[in-house]
Amino acid sequence: MGLIGKRKNKKYSYKPRHYEFDGEGSPYSMEHKFDHFRTTVGDNKGLKGKFQSAWSDLRQTSDRNANRRIIVIIAILVLIFLFIIEFDLSIFYA
C-alpha cells in the first residue's frame, strides 16, 4: 500500500430535490440561530479585533441590574467559601 499511495474518496455532486428554506443557502449549512444578531461572529479578525468587538457588544447590551446581581452572587459565594475553609477575618483588624 505504501508504493501506490492512499486511496482517494469518491466525490459526489449531490443536490437534494426539495430544499426551499426561504430560498437562501443550503439546508445543510450549520449556523447558530442568533448568529446574524451578534457582532462577534463572522470573519477572523485576530485577537485584538475579537476583544474590541466583544467589548463594543458588551457596551451596547449592558444591563446594570444583571451586573449587580452577578456581583452579589459572586460575593455571597466567596463569603461561603471563606466560611467553609474557616478563614479568620481578624487579620484585617488592628
Work out the helix count.
2
Please outline the major beta sheet. none
Distance between the termini: 79 Å
Portion in strands:
under 5%
According to DSSP, the number of beta strands is 0
Any idea what the shape is? elongated
What is the arithmetic mean of pLDDT?
Answer: 77
Rg (C-alpha, Å): 27 Å
Share of residues in helices: 25-40%
Low-confidence stretches: none
- List the secondary-structure elements in sequence, H or E: HH
Query: SS-based structural class?
Result: mainly alpha
Describe this structure in words.
The protein is mostly helical. It has two helices and no strands.
Question: Can you describe this structure in just a few lines?
Answer:
With 94 residues, the protein is an all-alpha fold. It contains 2 helices and no strands.
Structural features:
94 residues; mainly alpha; single chain; 38% helix
How would you summarize the topology of this molecule?
Elements: H1 46-60, H2 64-84
